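I have been asked to look over a protein record a colleague put together. Alongside the sequence sits a line of tokens, each denoting a local backbone shape. I have pasted the whole thing underneath without changing anything:
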Amino acid sequence: MDYVDGFVAAVPTDKKQDYIKHAKLAAQCFKECGAIRIIECWGDDVPEGKTTSFIKAVQCQADETVVFSWIVWPSREIRNIGMKKIMNDARMKSENNPMPFDGSRLIYGGFSVVLDI
């Protein structure tokens, strides 16, 4: 069954086009390394919760927007091989494709799919 990497970040709202450019280049690399699908979502209805929320999780500021993304891989094994290639790809180095957001507030993780309807 598929394997998914998920991401949540706070991106400066005025850097939306920079983010899309960054994401397009990264997506090309992920696809070349075995990813099936890459989804990038720009928040437009992200409420701030009282206890938890995407906004609280990434410490989103008033001039930032929450981004929610995921990458679908055919398996964890292919993902692990692909991620090693991506980490060594010159296009993914910060000097060639800088993240237009604070990477220290990025939340990410890998997930085994248990239901896909």
